[in-house]
Amino acid sequence: xxxxxxxxxxxxPDWLExxxxxxxxxxxxxxxxxxxxxxxxxxxxxxxxxFIALLFATVLLPIxxxxxxxxxxxxxxxxxxxxxxxxxxxxxxxxxxxxxVGEASQVGKLVxxxxxxxxxxxxxxxGPLALDRDSVRGLVADLGSxxxxxxxxxxxxxxxxxxxxxxxxxxxxxxIAFLIYLLSxxxxxxxxxxxxxxxxxxxKLDRAIDECWETLGSxxxxxxxxxxxxxVLIGIAAFALGLPIAxxxxxxxxFASFIPIVGAWLAGLIVVLTAFAGGGVDAGIIMVxxxxxxxxxxxxxxxxxxxxxxxxxxxxxxxxxxxxGTALMGIIGALIVVPLVAIVWVLIKEFRREHDGSxxxxxxxxxxxxxxxxx
Length: 375
Prior knowledge:
Layout: H1 14-42, H2 44-69, H3 74-102, H4 104-122, H5 133-160, H6 162-197, H7 199-240, H8 246-256, H9 262-306, H10 315-356
Helix pairs in contact: 2-3, 2-6, 2-7, 3-8, 4-5, 4-9, 6-7, 7-8, 7-9, 7-10, 8-9
């Protein structure tokens, strides 16, 4: 007979109890995260314009404050800053986006032709990977046709989707409205948030806002300077080699520089293949060398000085973020997802610091490119 108080049946192992405890907690966290993602996805028409406005505000607010400090009324300083923004953005759209869209078909043809030349030059002459030239041309032609068909389909869908066009216009108007409010009364917005948080939490909120603002400002200024540096040098090489659509190649390089890691590789590939197609093998090899030298200079000398604060994100996180952002929100997602993830990471670090009771960092990390590993 079993002694009184002895539980009937087999005992549950400790490891299984711990696994069960962690499992239900993980399920709860996953459920909350899924609900949060669902809500954020359906509210993207609100937060995405606000975040875009926040990115531009990090560049325009110092200009607005400088004008205000030198005698202009705040409203007039905001108006001048917005005029600079509208004119600058209009020029960028006209010169960069207009050039890319206008020459998209020609770019596709040159890239396909360049890929064919590279394949013919580098193809193995014997062994299991040997291909005759007709086979290589056929494979490249199929690839080019597939890419062109996919691009044409995407353009037709975008042009015919009235809902997407309306959403884009509404989002643009909201972003401008948010930007005007941020430039007009950023300190008032901050004071309002601090007053609702209380004294102690308000101090921590101030620290988090400062970290986020410094991170976003450094990212925007650094990315712009790097984009100008890379696109100017690549453009000089393209014009010197007499490549076709050299201006469009400059525009592609500039625009792609705002997409971390992926953009540089994609733009470099397009430029190199165009060089092979438009200038021959010698021009293609020279452009490969130019790409290596320019991006080496950018990584070693320009980026460490352009970026005053790192994003502290691992390159794998950046690649995954760009992929997810592009899949969910297209080109806008690719452009904003990395700074958005960086801000989330800053907030997580602040939360952990508050929870652990550890003091804030007394010195910023050493300057480097935003793709630097270490987060």
